[in-house]
């Protein structure tokens, strides 16, 4: 499952804005904490590993600057099994429950899907998500849309370089009347989708 957060105009972050664009809400953070208790293995690249492991460590400290809900969501990530794809990181990885894979991510995920139980899900890692989707390895595509447009300050355009994909909506939810979760089954397509009567 590709799992992403985005601004309405398709950015993963924005220069000068805090994480979650400053709009994380109690209901959303509680949902994140519950999701962290499921049988997930989280897939990520080196940059996401560096950022998230640092935030998780900071949240575990005293006077972290995070709210109680944010801190719980971030520190809970330490217990989640993680597979990190990188040719630059070295073992052992400091963040608990992290496994390093230095080979081809697409081939490694094919093997993980064959041999592991539970759900494989991404965390950030836009190029990894794009590669897995392009390879046809994504069974679910889940996004949480934050109600902001960051056209001037937006960074990390999510959909650049994506293949064409048809999306079948299978789940949706609104958190605290503002954040919208959308979950789809993706299908790679070579042209416009055909409308069924």
TrEMBL record:
Residue ranges of domain Bacterial bifunctional deaminase-reductase C-terminal in the record: 2-180
Organism: Paenarthrobacter aromaticivorans
Protein name: Dihydrofolate reductase family protein
A Pfam cross-reference name: RibD_C
Top-rank taxon, per record: Bacteria
InterPro entries per UniProt: RibDG_C, Riboflavin_Biosynth_HTPR
